[in-house]
């Protein structure tokens, strides 16, 4: 599973005088993320570096950070860092650990590195990502689903390709995607752009547990206004904000004990804020705009109907040298309403008698259909992870001949097999399949004949 990290680019070096901006520039130039902790000579392996580093450093900080960089960060994981100007950068891990001891790397103290596909992002990212930079630890995992999703959205957008499959998420709306800090920004922007108030910037820094507002504003008449914002399921009681020297604007994603709108107190509705976000989407900061774009794309995908076909094929020609005699053993057809029709050919020895267009439908129980749908969702949601699970299946090759098995998942925009896209294409030399994800698929599709 893809994970998201953040790393502090704060080099020290043996003299303690490394320029952070030069280190950031090197990361961009070499397309890497990295840390220092140099050793006396260039190690040839991770294990050798660990042994050498243990003698020089050996403390818990060195051990924890090097373990994360060398071992825990996986291919396709996402990593954030930022420069001294507050600009954030996002990289996708695309290579294993390297020890780079060239002059530039030694001077900038970026020595233990991971190659990445790296992009400059913005100064505005979600609060969960910003707050992850508060701890002093050099490398840290960000344990937050929305931070991971935001990172995948931004990477896809900046790279210009759909590297990460952003499948539909149930019950997601703009208000449970925005962090508490983001919601405050939204309400502040709404009051300034739509209600002609001006934010007093320093008021955001005066907050403590005794103050009932997030920030203070003024209108052109010099009249004060205060804002209280609550996220999650918190229900606001307007009675708690009646006595004030200015007007209170209240917003809660959890709602109110009652709604009110007068000169001293106003509860802002979710629909009003949603309309504001739609109208001003193009000028909103990235940490808000990216979510709106994601939800718009999700709505389009939900409206788009797809048909899927899962095919299991087998080579029935017993030879290493001759071209494969590929035949379809069985296939499942899943329509947009998730109705499943399973078709299977009649096998005899090492051949399939029926032509694929004349295969007979197999009766399925409701529970059996659900299993096939569940397997399809697993594959479609993350084809890369599905491929790994297939590779880890327990199967044995033919002892005398090449006898591969093929699995293909296709997606169509109509039931007439037009405008098709291959979601997954996988094969392995598997004569007998005894367990794992491949066995689950074969059993669900009732086509274990000759491969168990």
Write the layout of secondary structure elements.
Elements (H helix, E strand, L loop, with lengths): L3 E4 L12 H11 L1 E4 L10 H11 L3 H13 L5 E5 L5 E6 L4 E2 L3 H6 L3 E9 L6 H5 L7 E3 L3 H15 L14 H4 L2 H14 L4 E2 L15 E4 L5 E7 L16 E6 L12 E3 L2 H10 L6 H18 L3 E9 L10 E9 L5 E5 L2 E2 L2 E2 L7 E3 L3 H16 L1 H9 L2 E3 L8 E8 L8 E8 L3 E4 L1 H8 L8
Parallel strand pairs: 1-3, 10-11, 11-12
Antiparallel strand pairs: 1-7, 2-6, 3-4, 4-6, 5-6, 8-9, 9-10, 13-14, 13-20, 14-15, 15-18, 16-17, 19-22, 20-21
Summarize the structure.
The chain has 452 residues and is of the alpha+beta class.
Written overview of the protein:
The protein has about 450 residues and is α+β, with helices and mostly antiparallel strands. It folds into three domains: about 5-160, ph1033 like fold (Roll), CATH 3.10.590; about 175-300, Trna Endonuclease, Chain: A, domain 1, CATH 3.40.1350; about 305-445, no CATH class. Helices cover about 30% and strands about 25% of the residues. Strands 1, 2, 3, 4, 5, 6 and 7 form a seven-stranded mixed sheet that branches. A six-stranded antiparallel sheet has the order 18-15-14-13-20-21, with helices on one face. It has a five-stranded mixed sheet with strand order 8-9-10-11-12, with helices on one face. Strand 9 and strand 10 form a beta hairpin. Helix 2 (about 45-55) runs antiparallel to helix 3. It is flat, with a radius of gyration of 28 Å. The two termini are about 30 Å apart.
